[in-house]
Here is the input.
Amino acid sequence: MVLPGVNKMPNLELRASRTGRRWVLVIWPAFLAACVLEVLVFSVLDPGEVHWPGHMSQPARQAAYTVAFFCFWLISAVCSCLVLWLKDGDGSECREKTGQ
Here is the structure.
């Protein structure tokens, strides 16, 4: 018997909210880290003064800032994802190896 107004698949909504929360836990800190890295790197380095080997023309500064930001964001997202993956482990593999 199904009661009116009762969700038939609560696990699907719970799983979707967990997945969304995981993405936020990965993407948001990675974005903030990419912002900090962008400021730190380009406060020391000017992309207009970097000479790229084999290129006669220099890429635009805006393009260098954009590409670098997305690279920093990707690297930070991978690191955040790795941390979340390591956090979710319950350590059962280590306990099995040590016999605890």
Summary: The longest helix spans residues 10-44. The chain has one domain: 10-98. Helices lie at 10-44, 61-88, 92-98. Confidence is low (pLDDT under 50) at residues 91-95.
